[in-house]
Design brief:
- It is a single chain.
- Helix content is 33%, strand content 24%.
- By secondary structure, it is an alpha+beta fold.
- The strands form 4 sheets. Strands 16, 17, 18, 19, 20, 21, 22, 23, 24 and 25 form a 10-stranded antiparallel sheet that branches.
- Helix 16 runs parallel beside helix 18 (509-518).
- The two termini are 52 Å apart.
Amino acid sequence: EDQFFNLELNLVKPEELLGPGEEASIAFELYAFSGLSRVDHLSPSMAVAVESPSVALPGEKYGGEVRVFPFRDLQGGLEAWVELVRGMASIGKRGYCVDRVPSGVRRLPLSVGSLPPLRRFKLGAARFETPAPLDWTMDRELYELAYVKARVCGEEVARAFSLNPDVAYAYRLLPENLRRRARAILEFNAPVESEHMEREAALPLLAALSRGARLKRGRILRRKPELSPELRRLALELLAERRELVERAASGRVDSRVAASAPVLLLALGYLVERSESLLKALRNLYAYMVEGVERGTYIDWFNALQGGGGASRFADYALALDIVGDELGGDLVEGVLWAFSWLKDELAKLTNAWAGNWEVSEAAGLLALSLELGGSDYRSDPAFLKAYATVLAALDSFLPDGAWPELAAGYHLYALESLLKALEVLKLSGAADLYSYEGRCGGPVVEKALEWLWGLATPEGRLPALEDSGEFKPPPDPFVIAGARRGSAELLSIAGRLIREGARVSSPYAILVLADSGIPLAGIASAPPPSPRPRVAVFEHSGRFVFRASDEPGSLYVVLDFGPQGGWHGHPDRLSFEVHRRGEAVVVDAGSAGYYTRLHWEWSKRSIAHNTVTLGESDHPEGSRGRLLSLSWDGGRAEAAFEAPIAEGAVLKRKLTVDAGAEAVEVEDEVVGEGVFRWNLHLRGEVLARGRCALEVRTAKNALRVELPEWAEVRVAEGWRGSSERAVYVYYEAPVEGRGLMGGRIVFTG
């Protein structure tokens, strides 16, 4: 199973000689089950877990739970016992090695609860425990391997564990405040669970002792932020909008949803403003949830470890918040938080890397903050800090020369940029580095070029088109505020001002910190002069985006065409596809993204036929290819651009796009070079009002338009999709091509 839950199942049948016409087959059943943290026994009838600690301490009772997931109704009960097997298997697993051990088996009783009736797909469980503490002696237990044995509905189950005096003595060496956290290491001990290497079982506990002794409190914020009255009001208004999360956290009802969504840094800023006891309670409970999760060994799930480290930049929020409210949390909790930070730092150091996808930038931001919060003045010799810093540099170098993030979907461009800005803020606020002027491949500061790309791609209304794995959205003002203030860019602040005047609001606590640090008034940004008018025609060569805007006024005709590369994992096979917007509405539409765990995503959104392009039948465009701009001319409100791109093996599409703002028309003239039956694809919002042999009348919420197609075309109308739930009108026709063929269409707005 991979990290996206795609399962590859290999079924092997013994080799047989088949005669003519004979077949071989395998029958199998596939069950999905949950509720087990491990699997110790698997059969056609059930999956069984013996959930008990990896390590038992001599002098203590040992217990756990037998959990059964039945695949059918089962009859029978549960017996369980401890079995101590004496023999040669212990040699090499422990420090004391002998050349011969007489074999033997010894049983110890277990007190076992009753197992409920086992019904198909209904989890059943029963507790067990030794009636008395376990012993360990040199002449007996030294040579024995310990197992929990059970008989469940007649089937034998075994789970090995380690009765370990070495761990017991190491455990007693731990300070009292660390013993509770070390219990999680007894529950799951990697040396025991992997190769049953009992002589190494104490090492994780001793590492915990070493970690506790090495914990040092550093600070990212060299001083607490001083918020102006308008920033104080903003922080409290933003918290009021999240009242439900704040109240749940303050009342102690913290679960994974609350922990993942609670605005921790905003809570700290709010407490700084009004010294509210409820805000402090919320913060204490959120930090306690983190500490308890690390102690239990379950916290890895909280930051979405199944998806690498996506979302791990939130640990920067936790670290900065600790700088603001740490003195109010209490010494024991702060010590626990630093312990948790240390563990999280080690986990993130395994994940963070310079492959520099959008997740890796998030990981790097979190890892930087944790390293600085724990490293004091020694952070530059911390391998975790250096790894995170290298990943930030790799991310900055990954932006294309025109400012685009290489995954090319506008939504992921924004996500990567927001995580990057977190990382840059952590570095700047701590005094570790200032990378806001870093140029990479962009020929200018990366953060400025990245925001210019985002704004340059946007519609006259300031919305980003739904190309690649991205929905249509309006960017928030926060990244423009942060980069504009740090770079002293009046243009970026003007864009932020326009977005604010159009209804968006600053909502990132990092924007609040930057404004407090720079002294720039938020009201001044909101009333800033309008940004410079964007050009009527813009070409982003490296990312492959052609943009036409009739004007910068909302409602103007807007066309965007994609002639760029695939865009990595988040790209689509959509060579020379385009979108058309008018009156603030997307009319000719891209499939966008339907979400990664839906059939629609793979069966439609990432198919070439789901885009406004030409395909060889229903086949997808080749990955790894891109288009190129051949020519471009424009005069006033009319622009002509020609492009070409490979669309199949041995097939090339040459597309001429003519946009006439005066006539409110978009014409597409296509020349296909290749062999086969090619399909011309077009996707529209709205409903078809009238349909002729080669024309359609379509009405949307705000527009009326006519689609004109070649007279010879046999036009078909089907159902398509935009995003995860919006149905679109799918118009297409096909034509055989032998060497060279002409296709195309014209969209004319009529109302």
